[in-house]
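Run log // design_07
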């Protein structure tokens, strides 16, 4: 596709460079929100367009990552509200694609699929908190800004999400023989 050079001249100075550093993370976050590749791509596109339109309001030297992730989260909320108004209260699990492989560089482990499945099984508030802080490396403050909640709420969700993830993975580790079960521990003490 031939895009005229004037198209790129219309982009606000600095927007493309800032966005380029965060596109992969934004896409992974959109996948975590939608759990559907085409919807994630549409959501990301909406967020980029909204960010582009609002970039004139962005304060130079501000935290672009938290700002653009908040725009993505708001775009997702807008889509969800629209679905609710149209009578579709929830997106059915059956209509979703299987969870995508996110954060491959972080979870390049033997149990990668199990870890991702356990993460995807978390309730949304916990999953998104863990995703932003542990996968995207956001600070608590920035993740709270992106999710539009107080830092204390984010911390609570993050701790609860990590706890549920730990519980789920420790059960899996026992099943696979990586951790001794309670009965194994008692047998050794006798």
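design_07 sequence
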């Amino acid at each position: 596709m031939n895009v005229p050079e004037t198209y790129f001249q219309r982009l606000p100075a600095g927007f493309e460079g800032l966005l380029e550093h965060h596109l992969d993370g934004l896409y992974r976050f959109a996948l975590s929100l939608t759990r559907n590749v085409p919807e994630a791509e549409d959501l990301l596109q909406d967020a980029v367009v909204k960010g582009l339109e609002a970039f004139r309001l962005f304060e130079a030297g501000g935290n672009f990552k938290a700002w653009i992730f908040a725009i993505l989260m708001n775009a997702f909320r807008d889509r969800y509200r629209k679905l609710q108004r149209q009578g579709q209260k929830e997106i059915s699990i059956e209509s979703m694609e299987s969870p995508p492989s996110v954060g491959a560089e972080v979870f390049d482990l033997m149990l990668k699929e199990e870890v991702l499945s356990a993460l995807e099984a978390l309730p949304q508030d916990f999953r998104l908190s863990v995703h932003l802080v542990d996968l995207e490396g956001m600070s608590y403050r920035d993740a709270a800004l992106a999710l539009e909640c107080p830092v204390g709420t984010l911390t609570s969700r993050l701790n609860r999400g990590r706890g549920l993830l730990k519980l789920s993975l420790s059960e899996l580790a026992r099943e696979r023989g990586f951790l001794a079960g309670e009965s194994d521990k008692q047998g050794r003490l006798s």
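Confidence is low (pLDDT under 50) at residues 1-9, 91-110, 183-190.
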